[in-house]
Design brief:
The protein is mainly α and 143 residues long. Helices cover 56% and strands 8% of the residues. It is globular, with a radius of gyration of 16 Å.
Amino acid sequence: MVPQQKWRKTAPFPRFPSANRSKFYYDLPAGPFYGFNRPGVETIEPVVWNWWRQGMMGGAKAHYDGIVAFSQTDFTEDLKKITVPVLVMHSEDDQIVPYVAAGPLSAKLLRNGTLKTYKDFPHGMPTTQADTINADLLTFLKA
């Protein structure tokens, strides 16, 4: 868990947008979620619009509750109870969940955790970097 005060300072949005959900669900994937706001990274519009579509299909209250749950729940004790091998994949350039406060800590708390760190991948790396992510998952599963 990222402490709420730290998460609020590093998250791309200060609080859930009640005024213009549609704009929020476009701006987040068009910017930090997939790293499309980084220099030299080309926006993949169908990916952005698919994220927007999924966001607009959900209820505002459910989305708000989800953000509260993942940003304010301490999963420390839950992670300590997991005994099966777990691959924690995280990028140092994740603009949504700060790497230092999440990836290494999660892997350390797991009894059998392996941390795979990426340098310049976005939070949405399973979509934008699918070839690399899928290859790393297969390697982990075959080990």
